[in-house]
Write a structure and sequence with these properties.
The protein is an alpha+beta fold and 126 residues long. The chain has helices at residues 2-17, 47-54, 108-122, and strands at 22-29, 34-37, 59-62, 65-72, 77-80, 87-93, 96-102. Strands 2-1-7-6-5-4-3 form a 7-stranded antiparallel beta sheet, with helices on both faces.
């Protein structure tokens, strides 16, 4: 767990330094357990939603806000709110999913690429 927290802390610092506009991060295991979340984002009751998006759901609701999947690749999934309330980015890795909330001003494909480098470091650690 300490190693996982260190990776997420580095992600947060680098996201801030590179102006990535990532506001919250969580790690959910393949079995649906919430492994880690930043203090400003609560996914406690949303792990099933995360797994369902990974399995192919094209829309989801998070914190009473509806998102639609606008991009789904082997790298990850980008969900965007049509009313300009931001993006949720899902990056699967071996053992789980790195989930992030990106602010409306973020560049989702750029954020996905950024998050992928950290997800790779999480492989097998959950």
């Amino acid at each position: 767990m300490e190693e996982l927290k260190k990776i997420i802390d580095e992600l947060g610092i680098n996201a801030l330094e590179t102006n990535m506009k990532i506001a919250g991060v969580a790690v959910v295991s393949d079995s649906g357990n919430l492994i880690f979340q930043t203090e400003n984002w609560d996914l406690t009751n949303h792990t099933d939603m995360v797994l369902n998006v990974i399995k192919g759901n094209r829309s989801f609701v998070l914190s009473n806000t509806e998102f639609s999947v606008v991009e789904s690749t082997t790298e990850g999934i980008i969900g965007t709110n049509n009313s300009g309330m931001g993006h949720v980015i899902f990056v699967p890795f071996q053992g789980g999913v790195l989930v992030s909330y990106a602010m409306p001003q973020a560049d989702p494909p750029k954020a996905l690429s950024f998050l992928k480098t950290y997800a790779m470091r999480l492989n097998g650690k959950v």
